[in-house]
DNA sequence: AAGGCGGGGTG
DNA sequence: CACCCAGCCTT
């Protein structure tokens, strides 16, 4: 039996936590080490909200949304009582809209049961809470001995251990390694410290090993090319899809629709559009008969394809009967996902 | 295990 | 252009 790789890292928490006391990022949802030391704990609602919001999202992009949500819905009960369309609208532009749908589901389940569960296993059962988020909430909000392994932590440990194997398998090694290192007394600070190390020191392209508190433990550093890790599979090229958005004006109103809950941009307010296809622009099927004018094109990149989006505009004297139509004041349009926001802005010119 | 699912910032 | 980011869910 080979010795576990984490055996070499037993001194890591003792080096990392003192560093964190000096260099923790002061984020709006955090309770810093000095305040934790005198017994303060973060509000579980804010911890949960920020964790969901920051999934696959940069802190600068997500932070304004965190402020907007906590101001408008200060508690999980307040959020649970919100209207679906208000929450989806407030989430517009943040992306991964299934998060917003699950956020509401989760808020309502939590409110119904009288508060957040405190263990990783129970948190994991709630919608939108996966392995990372369950560990993060349990550790940060409830002082549970749980690990929070996000992209930062994956990168840090890929380097500490100089992992060269298949990435999906190595991520499991990392998860077990981190789990074994979580200190009993300060699991939340340990989770935040690892993330901060990855975000501010052990960065993707130019890790700053000279200021790293655990560089002496790092196998990749010893090899000399830490930036070579993590070794991930090559990404496949994104195909291009083509689509058309329709901006139909009737006096001061514009035609919007709501997309079905499942699938791309699910549950979001949108401009009418057909399915987007590869190979070129298809025949147009506008939502109403009118004098349609080709306004131009916007481009947008999604996770697994790029979109060339042609924008058509027309003006009608009266509102045609259109099932599902959401007629909206043209100057008060809000809550559109970015791709439709781009298209609509083009049509306003 | 693999693929769907946003958006913006950075080099 | 590519890669990355406080990942989760479905199939």
From TrEMBL:
<dbReference type="GO" id="GO:0035485">
    <property type="term" value="F:adenine/guanine mispair binding"/>
</dbReference>
<dbReference type="Pfam" id="PF00633">
    <property type="entry name" value="HHH"/>
</dbReference>
<keyword id="KW-0234">DNA repair</keyword>
<keyword id="KW-0378">Hydrolase</keyword>
<dbReference type="Pfam" id="PF10576">
    <property type="entry name" value="EndIII_4Fe-2S"/>
</dbReference>
<dbReference type="GO" id="GO:0006298">
    <property type="term" value="P:mismatch repair"/>
</dbReference>
<dbReference type="InterPro" id="IPR044298">
    <property type="entry name" value="MIG/MutY"/>
</dbReference>
<dbReference type="InterPro" id="IPR000445">
    <property type="entry name" value="HhH_motif"/>
</dbReference>
<dbReference type="InterPro" id="IPR023170">
    <property type="entry name" value="HhH_base_excis_C"/>
</dbReference>
<comment type="similarity">
    <text>Belongs to the Nth/MutY family.</text>
</comment>
<keyword id="KW-0004">4Fe-4S</keyword>
<keyword id="KW-0227">DNA damage</keyword>
<dbReference type="InterPro" id="IPR015797">
    <property type="entry name" value="NUDIX_hydrolase-like_dom_sf"/>
</dbReference>
<dbReference type="InterPro" id="IPR003265">
    <property type="entry name" value="HhH-GPD_domain"/>
</dbReference>
<feature type="domain" description="HhH-GPD">
    <location>
        <begin position="53"/>
        <end position="200"/>
    </location>
</feature>
<dbReference type="GO" id="GO:0006284">
    <property type="term" value="P:base-excision repair"/>
</dbReference>
<keyword id="KW-0326">Glycosidase</keyword>
<keyword id="KW-0408">Iron</keyword>
<keyword id="KW-0411">Iron-sulfur</keyword>
<dbReference type="Pfam" id="PF00730">
    <property type="entry name" value="HhH-GPD"/>
</dbReference>
<dbReference type="InterPro" id="IPR004036">
    <property type="entry name" value="Endonuclease-III-like_CS2"/>
</dbReference>
<keyword id="KW-0479">Metal-binding</keyword>
<comment type="function">
    <text>Adenine glycosylase active on G-A mispairs. MutY also corrects error-prone DNA synthesis past GO lesions which are due to the oxidatively damaged form of guanine: 7,8-dihydro-8-oxoguanine (8-oxo-dGTP).</text>
</comment>
<dbReference type="Pfam" id="PF14815">
    <property type="entry name" value="NUDIX_4"/>
</dbReference>
<dbReference type="GO" id="GO:0034039">
    <property type="term" value="F:8-oxo-7,8-dihydroguanine DNA N-glycosylase activity"/>
</dbReference>
<dbReference type="InterPro" id="IPR029119">
    <property type="entry name" value="MutY_C"/>
</dbReference>
<dbReference type="GO" id="GO:0032357">
    <property type="term" value="F:oxidized purine DNA binding"/>
</dbReference>
<dbReference type="InterPro" id="IPR005760">
    <property type="entry name" value="A/G_AdeGlyc_MutY"/>
</dbReference>
<dbReference type="InterPro" id="IPR003651">
    <property type="entry name" value="Endonuclease3_FeS-loop_motif"/>
</dbReference>
<protein>
    <recommendedName>
        <fullName>Adenine DNA glycosylase</fullName>
        <ecNumber>3.2.2.31</ecNumber>
    </recommendedName>
</protein>
<dbReference type="GO" id="GO:0000701">
    <property type="term" value="F:purine-specific mismatch base pair DNA N-glycosylase activity"/>
</dbReference>
<dbReference type="GO" id="GO:0046872">
    <property type="term" value="F:metal ion binding"/>
</dbReference>
<dbReference type="GO" id="GO:0051539">
    <property type="term" value="F:4 iron, 4 sulfur cluster binding"/>
</dbReference>
<dbReference type="InterPro" id="IPR011257">
    <property type="entry name" value="DNA_glycosylase"/>
</dbReference>
């Amino acid at each position: 039996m080979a010795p576990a790789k984490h055996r070499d890292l037993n001194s890591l928490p003792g080096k990392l936590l003192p560093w964190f006391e000096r260099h923790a990022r002061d984020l709006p949802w955090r309770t810093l080490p000095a305040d934790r030391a005198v017994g303060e704990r973060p509000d579980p609602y804010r911890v949960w909200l920020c964790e969901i919001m920051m999934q696959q999202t940069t802190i600068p992009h997500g932070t304004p949304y965190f402020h907007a949500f906590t101001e408008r819905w200060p508690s999980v009960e307040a959020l649970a009582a919100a209207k679906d369309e208000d929450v989806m609208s407030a989430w517009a532009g943040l992306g991964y809209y299934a998060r917003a749908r699950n956020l509401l589901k989760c808020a309502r389940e939590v409110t119904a049961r009288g508060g957040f569960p405190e263990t990783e296993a129970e948190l994991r059962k709630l919608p939108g809470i996966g392995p990372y988020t369950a560990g993060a909430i349990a550790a940060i909000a409830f002082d549970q001995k749980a690990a929070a392994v996000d992209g930062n932590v994956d990168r840090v440990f890929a380097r500490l251990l100089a992992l060269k194997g298949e990435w999906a398998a190595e991520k499991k090694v990392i998860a077990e390694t981190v789990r074994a290192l979580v200190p009993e007394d300060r699991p939340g600070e340990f989770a935040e410290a690892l993330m901060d190390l990855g975000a501010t020191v052990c960065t993707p392209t130019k890790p700053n090993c000279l200021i790293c508190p655990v560089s002496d433990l790092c196998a990749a550093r010893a090899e000399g090319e830490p930036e070579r890790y993590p070794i991930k599979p090559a990404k496949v090229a994104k195909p291009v899809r083509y689509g058309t958005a329709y901006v139909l004006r009737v006096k001061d109103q514009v035609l919007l629709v709501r997309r079905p809950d499942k699938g791309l941009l699910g549950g979001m307010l949108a401009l009418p559009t057909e399915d987007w296809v590869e190979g070129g622009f298809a025949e147009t099927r506008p939502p109403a008969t009118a004098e349609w004018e080709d306004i131009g094109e916007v481009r947008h990149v999604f996770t697994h394809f790029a979109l060339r989006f042609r924008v058509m505009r027309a003006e009608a004297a009266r509102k045609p009967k259109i099932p599902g139509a959401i007629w909206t004041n043209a100057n008060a349009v809000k809550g559109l996902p970015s791709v439709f926001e781009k298209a609509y802005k083009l049509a306003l010119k």
